[in-house]
Design brief:
Structural class: mainly alpha
Shape: elongated
Distance between the termini: 95 Å
Number of helices: 11
Strand content: under 5%
Helix content: 40-55%
Number of strands: 3
Amino acid sequence: PRTFERPGQDAAAGRMPPKKDSAATSNKLLRSAIDKGVDEFLCPITQELPVDPVMAEDGHVYERTAIGQWLQRSGKSPVTNLEMGQKLLDAKQVRSMLATMVKSGAISGDKADKWQERLKAEDQAREWQREAEGGDARAMCKLGASHDGADDDSEAVGKARMWYQRSAQHGYNRGLTNYANKLHNSGEKGHAALHWMEAATRGDAWACIQVAGLYSRGISGYLAQDKELAKRWCLKALACKLKDDGDGALPDEDDEAKANAWLDANADVAALWFDAPDRQAGTTGRVGA
């Protein structure tokens, strides 16, 4: 009998050829649509999903801190380059939508990972804020550090300096060192040097490095160059330890690198001071070349 074949049927096998996976194709299209939609919410300045989204007067959504810094420098939109006002509106619906999409896996990959990391950092900062307002000097220092690093943001610089100062006033030694750093960066070098000296005497390794640098360079009209004292404080930096009263801290890799680099470059300088310790291996085990 004659065999009638349907169009597209595999005559040899007597079966239909496999169809394309329509479900997989639909998923790809859906993923592409989601990615394009999510890109609409990327902050035009940071090119990341905003953790604290606001809508500016140009109708675009931004990260609050990013657009705030922008508006301190310019009165024009980062997107349109047209004049716009300073008013910012909370975009809570955007944040809620992004949170739902990240948690559900609709947004994944690098964008989601960075958003979650920044969200976690904000949660940690809020916890430090609560502890700092309760009088915790260490939390004050950490809160200062969470605002630090943005030298072009005057508000962040001010908050970092304020919390470092409060930490120092409450007796936390690293807070004193960091407060001195901010003073130095703002041009108050004499004031900074006094605070570094106190923090170094109390055993802060980074403060010891800063004091060593002051003696190594000297400060015109204030502090004479003295490499023997510079060596004394480099050696003290490598020997710093955490004390029972909370002062002091082991030198980190950067502290050790700076101290060892100076000591290697100035090996001919004598260690004449009675309290200059022997050169320590520190946490990296290195005692110099």
